[in-house]
Amino acid sequence: MGIVVRLLGPLEARDDDQLLDLGSPQQRTLVALLALRAGRPVELEAIEEALWTDLPPPSATKVIQTYVSRLRKLLGPDTIRSAEKGYALAADVVVDVAEFRRLSAEHHFSEALALWRGRALVDVPALAAEGRRLDELRASVSEEHIEARLARGEGPALVAELETLVAEHPTRERLLAQLVLALYRSGRQADALAAYRNGRRALVEGLGLEPGPALRELELQILHQDPALLPRRTWAREAPPRRSRHRMLVAGLVLALSAAAAISAIALGREKPEPAAVAIRPNTLLELDPTTNRIVASFPVARAATSLDATADALWVASERERTVSRIDLATRRVTTIGEPHPVTFLAHDDRGNIYASGFDFPFVWQINPHTVQIVRSFRVKTRAVGLASGGGSIWVVDRFANAVTRIDLAERRVAETIKTGIDPLGAAFGYGALWVANGDSGTVAVIRPGAPKPILVHDIPSPFGISAGAGGIWVASNGTHAVYRLDPDTHAIVARIDLGTPTDFLYTVSAGPHGVWAVENHHIVRIDPASDRVVARIRFPPGTEPKAVASTARAVWITVGDPKDDA
Questions:
Q1: Are 256 and 208 in contact, with CB atoms under 8 Å apart?
Q2: CA distance 204 to 395
Q3: Which of 108-112, 235-239, 442-446 has the lowest average pLDDT?
Q4: Coil, strand or helix: which one is 134?
């Protein structure tokens, strides 16, 4: 196939499926910039603006020439050609963005969306704006794909996918409308109405806006069970690949009726949660329905299951006391367990689903094959691997006694660098193009952007302990104030402090997911609504039990439960 450049996820270049080392962050940025304009010249001025945030040095032109020379040696002498006032990537270089646009234009939506491996250009911070535009384009194509499936009469099969998309893009009205329609077509009239009410509340409280007349009409249609909202049986047979403009306008009008109806259908809980339908017992994994805050199922797991990680098809549970890692298949609920690791306290996974595990007392990170559930390799850090995060083509290891994080390069399968953070780092999360590290004794959060010369420090968060990225922000659990702090991912500013109201509890960690933000204490799970930055639900655990970890999938929230005596 020749040279292929992939931008729809971490930046990659391959030559006949062999991964190529693109060199320094600036050199990687140059490749990405040329690939974004594949076949068209990029002027030197635009290249300088991307490579240097401040004024470019006097030698900028010479430096760029050096980068181009190196890349020609790596990619081939004809892959980058000189153009008037700049450079251009050869037209025969395959770029996944161009393929995505072509397949989308031809209405091959499934093939187009399959090209994505994560957020676009996630590890090229200099082109973050371009990455966001590509992510928005992906959301638009997802909308088109879902609309076509709705037109064919689908409904129930789309709900989980739409819930995830709405959580990622809570202000995209078309997605919200599609979610409400899919819920109604799934026979979930009450959920569709709840989505409308929660969306109205979010509009009024967040933006000061009432729903428009079309949205109010949709509520009436649902209440009256209007047959017009249901798919026609003939649609699946008759729907052509390209619909007429008139039909598109009509379908768009029906969907637009619920403009923001579901804006917090999965982000808001009840102020007074109903009692659990399933008893809470030690050494179990609980399934919580985020639409009701009720525990609906319980499964036995190992003791002291202190870490929980969710991938596309499985839940992974680590037991520190029993020295096991278990995989729970989400479809079959089949459990596969391995022993032999040292006591494991932390889990993470990469874009390919590989699992990584580490423990408090050892300087190792173990990689586990997700299919065989066997350890395939290990990496060594300087002192103790007390936390893991995945992103930007790397596994980031909190190296506590080194007051640093160690970066494991996944492409090269090696420890690449160690970066100083602050005193007593305790947790890390990767999101919005950066690594975020909670430094317990410093009272700071270190922001590490790949390729940046040094971390940025966010101050004034007393005793940060846990940290999570998602749901529109960076969430930091502070034991100094027994509150959760919200940071703006772009400005790094503290934009909210949410008091949890249980000052006698110890605040272990915080987890942001598609159903909101969840704080884990030793007696409670506290739910925070990211639309309002308020506590909206609290689940109390009975004596003899305590929550250990929480993770979210598209349909549910999962909680591991331990026995406090196991910590003695």
A1: no
A2: 41
A3: 235-239
A4: helix
Query: Residue 224 pLDDT more than 80?
Result: yes
Residue 96: how many other CB atoms lie within 10 Å: 20
CB atoms within 10 A of CB 49: 13
Q: In what order do the strands lie in the sheet with 385-391?
A: 385-391, 394-399, 404-409, 414-420
What are the angstrom distances between the C-alpha of 385 and each of 29, 113, 356, 363, 557? 31, 36, 11, 5, 27
Fold agreement between 3-113 and 152-256:
no
142 phi, psi to nearest 5 deg: -60, -40
Please state, in angstroms and rounded to a whole number, the distance separating the CA atoms of residues 76 and 72: 5
For residue 405, the model assigns a pLDDT of 95
Given pLDDT bands bounded at 50, 70 and 90, which one contains residue 211? low
Give the CA distances from residue 556 to residues 9, 31, 161, 315, 553, in Å, rounded to whole numbers and listed in that order. Answer: 26, 40, 13, 12, 5
Residue 149, C-beta contacts closer than 8 angstroms, at least 6 positions apart: 157, 158
Nearest 5°: the CA angle 557, 194, 519 is 30
State the fold for domain 3-113: Arc Repressor Mutant, subunit A (1.10.10)
Phi and psi at 561, nearest 5°, equal: -120, 130
Residue pair 24/33 in contact by the 8 Å Cβ criterion: no
CA-atom Rg of the chain in angstroms: 25
DSSP annotation string for 529-563: ETTTTEEEEEEEPPTT-EEEEEEE-SS-EEEEEE-
Q: What is the mean pLDDT of the chain?
A: 83
- The Cβ-side half-sphere exposure at 449, using a 13 Å CA radius, reads 17
457 pLDDT above the threshold of 90: yes
Rounded distance between C-alpha atoms, residue 237 and residue 108, angstroms: 18
Predicted pLDDT at 202? 65
CA torsion 326-331-333-337 (nearest 10°) is -20
Q: Which architecture does CATH list for 152-256?
A: Alpha Horseshoe (1.25)
Taking the alpha carbons at both ends of the chain, their separation in whole angstroms is 59
Give the pLDDT score at 157. Answer: 80
> Sign of dihedral through CA atoms 72, 78, 81, 82?
positive
Strand partners, 381: none
Residue 210 DSSP symbol: P
Domain ranges of the chain: 3-113, 152-256
CA-to-CA distance for 448 and 420, rounded, in angstroms? 10
Does residue 561 surpass a pLDDT of 80?
A: yes
Instruction: Name every residue whose Cβ is closer than 8 Å to that of residue 454 and which is 6 or more positions away in sequence.
Output: none
In whole angstroms, what is the distance from residue 25 CA to residue 539 CA?
Answer: 45
DSSP state of 228: G
Query: Has residue 444 got a pLDDT over 90?
Result: yes
